[in-house]
Amino acid sequence: MFDVLATTLTLPATWFKLLFALGTSFAIWRIGLTLIGLVCTYLHDRLASLLRLSWTVVCAYAALAATVYALALVDVPLLYDNGALIAQGFRNRAGQVVVVFALTLIAWNLVTLASRRMIPEAQQDAAFTRRSVRVQTLTGVIESSLRVVIVVLALISVLQALGINASALLAGVSVLGLAVGFGAQSLIKDVFTGFFILLEDQYGVGDVIAVNNGALNGTVERLNLRLTGLRALDGTLHIIPNGQILTVSVSSKDWARVVAAVDLAATTDPSAALQVLQTVTDALYQDPAWKHHFLAAPEQQGVTRLSPDSFTIRALMKVLPKSQYPVGREFNRRIQAALTEAGINTPAPAADPVPLSINPIEVRLLPATAHDLPLHLDKPEPTV
């Protein structure tokens, strides 16, 4: 038997049969466990465990029999005969359908596994880079596209296994698709817009964007050829068809800027205020805990706005993408403490105006009636 086994293993066809038998057995075992898992919610725990164990034993025996048949080990008659029966069953239409489903499950899991391996590799880079954004975005698009291709190929293979002429069916479907395409122009517009968004790297998963002149803004959590998923600050997820996106403002591409504007009362000494601003920005730039966020030294712009009761001083800080938010918050904390320590007050908020009615006040004089006249008491006679 070992001589026959050694001779059989030298043939490439034997390895193909062996891999096909083991892969198909594993896929069928996974499909069975998935179906059992759906049924087990209505069964007792012991019965569910017994079903899983029984299915595992049956699949293991079938895999062993198929392996013996693939290796042509006729010296093991029981397993060889059962393996021949299994192979004959797979040659029938029902068996071909099962094989198609098994191969589809294997391909589906391979796509998922490959995408999960690509995303952690992108996350090993810096916290936020264009490469990581690009990899995460394209990974999702490629994964969804490959799954669509897998499902279409599996459907065609099942139709062919059932004896249905798939080519004639596809010709009819193409004509139907052309007719549907004229009625689904918005969907086609979404797909084409999404294609150019990905091709030109306009934005990607993880970018902070504002859509249509700020009508919606947030972090991109999902992007494919048809739609964009935007997570707002309050947690709301906005689903936007790509065809409805006219303008996009990206706040996290290449670099960002902190606009450090401080409003002060008109009685404040501008020179003293600018000195405080200079001190705060320089200290923040030189702080080791924050220096890695900066791409350049802070730029002082002086007094940028004047009004009767206040004025504004401003500094600009060029930072890494998405660093403008933590750097801006830290600057606000430091500038408030520095202004308080220097005795510089910010302008008090203006009082809200009291709304007056636009209609004139109307006063009407009405004649008095007997009921409106006061009661007159008899006056006492004056004493002499």
From TrEMBL:
Transmembrane intervals: 20-43, 55-74, 94-114, 162-182
Domain Pterin-binding: 298-384
One GO term of the biological process aspect: pteridine-containing compound metabolic process
Location(s), subcellular: Cell membrane
Keyword Membrane set for record: yes
GO CC annotation: plasma membrane
Main location: membrane
Keyword Transmembrane listed: yes
Membrane topology: Multi-pass membrane protein
GO molecular function: mechanosensitive monoatomic ion channel activity
Protein keywords: Cell membrane, Membrane, Transmembrane, Transmembrane helix
Pfam families: MS_channel_1st, MS_channel_2nd, MS_channel_3rd
Membership in a protein family: Belongs to the MscS (TC 1.A.23) family.
Protein name stated in the entry: Mechanosensitive ion channel family protein
Organism: Deinococcus sonorensis KR-87
Taxonomic path: Bacteria, Thermotogati, Deinococcota, Deinococci, Deinococcales
